[in-house]
Amino acid sequence: MDSPQRMTSRTKTVSALILVLYSVFVVVAIQSAPRRLPALPAVGLAHAVVGAFMCGVIAVLMLSQARSTGRRGYLMVSGTFLYMTGILVFFPLVFPGAVLPDQQILGGLQSAPSLFYAWHFAFPIGIAVSAFVLDMDQRTHRRPGFNHFEELFGLALTLGGILITVGLVTIGADQLPALLGSEGEPTSYMRVLDILLVGFALVSATVTAACARNGSVITRWLFALAVLGLGEAAVNFNSTGRYSAGWYYSRVFWLVAVGLLFLALLWNLARVNRRNLELAGVDSLTGSESRLGLLASVESEIAKAEAEFSQVALLWLDLDNFKAVNDELGHRVGDEVLRTVVSRLSREVADSDHVSRLGGDEFGILLCDDVDDARMQDVARRTLAAVRAPIHIAGNIVQTTATIGIATAPSDALTADELLLCADLAMYSAKGNGGDRYERFNEDIGIQAITRARMGHDLMAALRNGDFRLHYQPIVEVSDGRMAGVEVLIRWVRDGQVIPAGQFIGYAEQSGQIVNLGRVVIGQLADALPSWFARYPQDFFVTVNLSTKELADQPLIDAILTGPLAAYAQRLVIEVTESLGFQDDPNAGKGLLRLREAGMRIAIDDFGTGFSNFSRLEYLRASILKVDRSLVHREDGDGHGTFLAAAASIAHSLRCDVVAEGVETDAEADVARSLGVRYAQGYYYGRPAPAEAYLSDGSGVPAPRGPESVSAPGAEV
Ligand code: C2E
Ligand code: CA
Ligand code: CA
Fold this sequence. Notes:
binds calcium ion; five-stranded mixed beta sheet; alpha/beta; single chain; Rhopdopsin 7-helix transmembrane proteins; disordered C terminus; 16 strands; elongated
C-alpha cells in the first residue's frame, strides 16, 4: 500500500469536492460549538473505548507494516496511534467524571483539559512527522530496516510520553486549576493553547498535503487525518467545554478520523500482503528472489563493491525453448520446470550469491564475492550444463537449454538498472549467435543495441516516407543463358544511396517491421508484374522472398491472396529459407500452405546453410532448390563440384530444379553447366537492378555492370 500512485483526475475532483463540503461543515460546526447540549457521559466513555480499540489495531497493523517494509515512517504512525491508545485507555481512569459525574479517582476536574491538550498536540505532530519520514524513505528508496533496539526504543518513547502525560495530569493536578480554570470557563492560558493547537493542525495538514501530492496511498490517508484534525482544532476553538456542541463534534471528528484509517487499513490488507511479499523480494512461484528483490540486492552489492574496490557480476539466464514446453506440455509442467531450474541454479552458486527469477523464463544470478573472469565463466559453464540435464516431470522428459549474458559492475554498469540492461543485451547477443551459450557484455554489444534502436527508428521513418524500391536480379537457364525469371530484392534509398536488403532486413525482422516491408513489396510488385509478363514468355517466373514472420502474418497473406498478385499465382515463386522456423511459429507453415494452394510455387533459399532433413524438405514440397552462394564459391576452390552435385541429386529425388546462387566467375558458371544444374543466378549473369534495366531493350539478358542505383542498373556496393 505504499506504492506511489498517480491520482486520476476523477479522484482529484472527488477529493476537492469532499474538502469543500467538509470546510462548509466545519464552518457550521464552529458557529454552533458554544451551544450547550444535554449531558451524555456515555458518549465520552464510548468515544474512549471505541477510539482506544481502533487506535490499538491501527498501531499493531502499522507496526507489522513497518517490520515487513523496513520503513521508519510506519513505525512513527504506529507510535502515534499507540500513544493515542494509551491516553484513551487511561482517559476513563484518570477522568471518571466524564463517565460518572462527580466521581474522581486520580486527577482533579481540571486535569481533563491538560489531558485533552497533551493528546491533541501529539496527534498533528505525530501525523506530520510520520508522513514526512514515509515520504523521505520513499523518495530516497531507502529501506534501511530497523533492528530490535530501535523498535524497543520507539516503544519506550511512546510509553514514556503516556506516563509523562498521565503524571502531569494526576500529580500536577493541584497546580493546574489556576492555569486551566474551572470547567466551562476557558482561561487566557487555554486560549493560547487553543491557538497553538490550530497552528499545529495547520502545519500538519500542510506537511501531509505536500507529502501526499507525489506520495503513496498511506500518505494520502494521513493527509485526510490531518485535515480532520484541523477541523476539530478549529471547532474546539469556539467550544465551551464539556457537553457543549463543540465537545460532541470533537468526539465525532475523532472517531470518523480513526474509523476511516481503520477501514482503509482493513480494505488494503490483501494488497499490503501481496506488496509485502514483493517488497520482501520473493517470487511466489519459485520461492526465489524476485526481480524487485534482486534489484535491491544488486544496489547494495554495487555500493559494497565500490567501497571495497571489488566487483559484482550478473548472469542473465534465459531458457531457449520454454514457450514450446509450456505450449506442448501445459503450464503445470512449465511451472515445475521453472522451479527445477531455480533449484539447480542455486546448487551451482555460493551461499553469498543470489539466484532470482526475473519474470517469465528469465533468471538472474548475482555473484558477489571473489568475482573474477574465471569464476564467472565457471559458474556460466556449470549452470548451462545444469539446465541442459533432462528434467523428469510427471512421466515427461523435458530437455531444455539456456542462454546467458554476463555483465559486471562497476566496469560495465554503475547502477542496478544498467547492470540488468547490459546483462540482458549480452544475453540477446548470445541468443543471436545460436543460444545455449554465454557471452560477456562488451562495447560492441552496447553499440549494436544502439544501432538496432536507431535502425528500427529510421526504418519506421523510411516506411512512412516510402523510401523503398524493388530491384530485380535475373535467374538464367544455364544451358542457353536465357533469362528464365527474376528474383525480387528490396532496396532502401537512403540519402540518394541504394542500400541492399542484406544490410537492413535483419533489423526489420527484429523490430517486426518486416511485415510492413512485405506490404511495400507486394504493393510495388503488383504495379510491375504486368510489364514483366507482357515482355517475357509464358513460363517466365518472378520469385519473392518471404520471411517466417511475414508468412505467419495472416493479414499479409490475405492481402496477397485477395489482391492483384493472386491473378499471377501460377507465375510466382515464394522463396523461403531452409532454416524457416516452422517449429517456432506454426502459423508460418499455414501461411505457406495457403499460398501453395493458390498455385504459387515454393523455392528453398540458401540451401546448404541450414539444417534441413528430408522430411522437412518433402513437407515443404518445393519446386526449386537455391544452393547458397557460399557452397557455389567453394566449388570454385576445389573444382570438384561436390556440393552442387549433392544438391543436384537431392533436388532430383525431390523432383525439383536447382538454382546455383552467387555465380560470379566463368569458372563457377562452368561448374554449374557441367553438373547439369538447370538455373543460375549471380553477378556473372546480371546484377540486381530496377525493372527498367531488364524491360527496356529487347535483346537477351542484359548484364548491368555500373553501380546499382535507383534509376540505372549497376554494381552492388
Ligand atoms: P537472398 O534471397 O539469398 O538474395 C540474394 C542476395 O545475394 C541479394 O542480396 C543479392 O543482391 C546478392 N547477390 C546476388 N548475386 C550475387 C553474387 O554474385 N555475389 C554476391 N556476393 N552476392 C550476390 P540482398 O539484396 O542484400 O538481399 C539479402 C537478403 O535479404 C536476401 O538473400 C533475402 O533473404 C533478403 N531479402 C531481400 N529482399 C527481400 C524482401 O523483399 N523480403 C524479404 N523478406 N527478404 C528479402
Ligand atoms: Ca532469395
Ligand atoms: Ca539466397
